């Protein structure tokens, strides 16, 4: 037995009559043993009862009885000859030994990676000294009434609430009550200053935030619901779109909006057909992102100064894209802003009307404003200058969309008479979390120096934990959530945050297989529906069913065969009475090389049956030139999401399964669950949140797990690449993302630092250095 904190835990169990000893097992196999336990295959070597492997954060791995968790049986002592060495079962093929299944291995000798590292509290947290910011008595009656009804404000918050005339910049650190200030300020304007709600423009980052703010306003004392409804609130896009459609309803009717990415791609591809850009090599998605960036920066096509060949080509596309849209009478989201900007510029009388109408501007998340938004605000507020901008430069995370925190940093240049109020009390998080966050963000160079103070301290330090890989990471998080729910936590207390959607695959799977309620972003597609992943899985499907029509359709792109060939394949299959897979060998493409490859698809696909999913995937990669396909169609030119990464992630997922059928069944189940959970997410009000860090901005949770805090993930590879070429801005934005993630936690924060990522050794995120070093800087 292992002694942990004075309690004894079991270190041995039986699997298929063999003794497993945790002290001797390879780390890699823990996840597999965990799964065997879930299937009921692990037994206690002493009493024979069913046991499971505990793989969590708060305790070290150990076996426990399912029926009586606290029961402690005796471990068996293991003879050295009963210790297995790592072993795989092989079959012979073409003179090669190919592994078909992996036995759970144990090894007497352990390398450093194989040793389970206990979760560690973060270092360098200074002792807590409370700075009481509350209990001020305000001369203003309404503010006093508010504090009596439970809406407390500190002195700086109150100053921000009551400074109504003239420009005001509220620099609000994380958790410092930005939302509270904006809401209370609006209430104060309506109730105390009797300002006409129709003259107030309240800009929020999402439509949901505006709706929530209005709802909260209704709870304020003396609030008139009619007045609240009359407030003009929403996102920049929605507000300026309303203006455009008021002046030109037909031109801006919603049916003409290109609201899907593929619609924009279609327009641009059509407009540039004659340029003969190779669709397989030119990253149209990136080009559209760049075009959007130019538009939001108010750079017209003829004013672009390309910095390289790619930008030069993209500038041509930009011109064509704009022309094509105009000819067809269509518009995109960016046009809602640039269109309004043009409307005001070309029609000073219309601008004048709106300048008279809107007297007060409240803008939330000001750090994420872009050029066109900023110019629009400046135009509208030119007469009154009553702009209240609230933001935190440390939480600016949308540079890729043209946002620029510089507008916040330079606010006083454009509004020299501005009053600046810094909110530096963090009411959300415990001192230990605030202090860790302060240290992380202090290393950014492009920022206003500030440090947050917490309002309370907790006996719980933030923890780093060290899973073996993405799979074990997900298991450890699930176990920890279950442990905490047993202690009385609610599902709504938890959020699991990740850098990109792809990073959530394993956690999604673990939660989907549990009975815990959780919610997902509505646009989160299933990992197994991604283009490259679907293609690869289709080969595996065809090895089981050669007549799977969808699978044939999905492998065609990887073989560089047009979709129109599908009809011929189906007809052939009826005429010649052969399987759809066999018909591939009859396709005439006119290229000998391609035809011989198509002939090879049949034996290679058939050879997959009996292999493990990982070996099957590797076989397709090697034998059918799948990597060529990825190079051409895997968005390898894309900065954020590459097909080659998807393939690596797929292999990590596949490692959990020994047979193709089991793995494919799992992928189908997960696809179905993705849709189901998204539906359920709409109605859940007590569920665990699974979210990207971007989407979690502005939200708070009692317990936060930050997934994948390793180099390449957070900071993301694209930022590291930019940094190597001398541009540190993307890396600073990644550090802000870490800051946003960490500051979502109220009491418990767990940062995961897996040993492996995408099958390779991973290194702890550089952002963690200040809180993991032994000495303070
Ligand atoms: N004066 C106050 N006294 C007590 N609690 C407060 C006070 N101000 C804000 N809070 C609480 O602190 C938490 C954080 O506030 P809020 O969400 O408004 O912060 P924020 O500045 O918008 O945060 P972020 O920018 O990090 O999303 C909320 O739970 C809020 O109710």
Question: What does the model show?
Answer:
The chain has 777 residues and is of the alpha/beta class. The chain has a 7-stranded mixed beta sheet. A hairpin with a 7-residue loop joins strand 6 (51-54) and strand 7 (62-65). The longest helix has 22 residues, at 660-681. Bound molecules: adenosine-5'-triphosphate. The site of adenosine-5'-triphosphate has 19 residues, from helix 4. Its EC number is 5.6.2.4. Belongs to the helicase family. UvrD subfamily. Keywords: ATP-binding, DNA-binding, Helicase, Hydrolase, Isomerase, Nucleotide-binding.
Briefly summarize what is shown.
The protein is of the alpha/beta class. It is built from 31 helices and 26 strands. Helix content is 42%, strand content 13%.
């Amino acid at each position: 037995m292992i002694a942990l904190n004075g309690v004894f835990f079991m270190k041995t169990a039986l699997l298929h009559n063999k003794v497993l000893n945790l002290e001797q097992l390879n780390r890699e196999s823990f996840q597999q043993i965990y799964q065997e336990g879930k299937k009921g295959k692990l037994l206690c070597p002493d009493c024979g009862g069913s046991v499971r492997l505990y793989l969590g954060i708060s305790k070290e791995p150990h076996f426990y009885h399912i029926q009586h968790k606290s029961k402690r049986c005796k471990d068996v002592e293991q003879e050295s000859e009963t210790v297995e060495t790592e072993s795989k079962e092989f079959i012979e093929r073409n003179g090669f030994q190919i592994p078909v299944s992996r036995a759970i291995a144990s090894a007497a000798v352990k390398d450093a990676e194989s040793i389970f590292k206990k979760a560690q509290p973060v270092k360098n947290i200074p002792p807590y000294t409370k700075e009481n910011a509350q209990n001020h008595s305000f001369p203003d009656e309404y503010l006093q009434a508010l504090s009596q009804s439970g809406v407390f404000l500190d002195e700086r918050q109150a100053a921000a609430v009551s400074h109504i005339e003239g420009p005001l910049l509220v620099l609000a650190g994380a958790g410092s009550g930005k939302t509270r200030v904006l809401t209370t300020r609006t209430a104060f304007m309506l109730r105390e200053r009797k300002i006409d709600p129709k003259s107030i423009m309240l800009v929020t980052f999402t439509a949901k935030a505006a709706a929530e703010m209005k709802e909260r306003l209704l709870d304020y004392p003396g609030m008139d619901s009619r007045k609240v409804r009359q407030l003009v609130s929403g996102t920049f896009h929605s507000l300026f779109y309303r203006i455009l459609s008021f002046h030109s309803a037909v031109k801006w009717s919603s049916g003409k909006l290109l609201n899907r990415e593929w619609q924009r791609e279609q327009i641009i591809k059509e407009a540039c057909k004659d340029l003969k850009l190779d669709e397989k090599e030119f990253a149209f998605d990136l080009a559209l992102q760049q075009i959007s960036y130019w538009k939001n920066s108010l750079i017209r096509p003829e004013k672009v100064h390309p910095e390289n060949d790619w930008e030069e080509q993209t500038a041509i596309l930009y011109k064509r894209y704009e022309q094509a849209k105009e000819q067809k009478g269509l518009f995109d989201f960016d046009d809602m802003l640039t269109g309004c900007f043009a409307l005001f510029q070309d029609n000073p009388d219309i601008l004048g009307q709106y300048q008279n109408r809107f007297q007060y501007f409240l803008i939330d998340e000001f750090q994420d404003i872009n050029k066109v938004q900023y110019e629009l605000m400046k135009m509208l507020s030119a007469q009154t200058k009553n702009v209240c901008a609230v933001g935190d430069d440390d939480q600016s995370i949308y540079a890729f969309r043209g946002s620029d925190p510089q507008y916040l940093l330079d606010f006083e240049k454009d509004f020299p008479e501005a009053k600046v109020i810094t909110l530096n009390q963090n009411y959300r998080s415990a001192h230990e979390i605030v202090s860790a966050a302060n240290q992380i963000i202090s290393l950014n160079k492009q920022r206003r120096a500030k440090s947050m103070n917490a309002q309370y301290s907790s006996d719980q330090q933030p923890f780093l934990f060290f899973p073996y890989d993405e799979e074990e990471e997900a298991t450890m998080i699930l176990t920890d959530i279950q442990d905490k729910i047993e202690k009385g936590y609610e599902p709504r207390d938890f959020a699991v945050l990740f850098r990109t959607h792809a990073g959530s695959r394993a956690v999604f799977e673990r939660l989907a297989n549990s009975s815990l309620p959780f919610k997902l972003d509505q646009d989160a597609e299933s990992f197994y529906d991604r283009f490259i992943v679907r293609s690869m899985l289709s080969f595996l499907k065809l090895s089981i069913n050669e007549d799977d029509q969808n699978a044939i359709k999905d492998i065609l792109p990887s073989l560089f065969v047009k979709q129109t060939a599908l009809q011929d394949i189906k007809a052939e299959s009826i005429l010649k009475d052969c399987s759809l897979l066999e018909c591939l060998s009859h396709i005439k493409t006119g290229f000998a090389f391609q035809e011989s490859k198509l002939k090879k698809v049949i034996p290679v696909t058939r050879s997959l049956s009996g292999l493990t999913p990982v070996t099957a995937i590797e076989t397709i990669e090697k034998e059918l030139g799948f990597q060529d396909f990825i190079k051409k169609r895997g968005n390898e030119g894309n900065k954020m999401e590459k097909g080659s990464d998807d393939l690596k992630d797929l292999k990590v997922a596949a490692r959990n399964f020994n047979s193709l059928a089991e793995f494919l069944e799992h992928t189908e189940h997960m696809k179905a669950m993705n849709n189901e959970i998204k539906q359920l997410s709409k109605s859940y009000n007590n569920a665990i949140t699974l979210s990207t860090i971007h989407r979690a901005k502005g939200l708070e949770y009692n317990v936060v797990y930050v997934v994948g805090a390793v180099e390449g993930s957070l900071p993301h590879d694209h930022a590291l690449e930019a940094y190597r070429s001398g541009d540190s801005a993307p890396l600073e934005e990644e550090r802000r993302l870490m800051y946003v993630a960490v500051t979502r936690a109220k009491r418990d924060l767990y940062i995961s630092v897996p040993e492996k990522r995408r099958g390779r050794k991973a290194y702890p995120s550089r952002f963690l250095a200040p809180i993991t070093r032994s000495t303070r800087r």
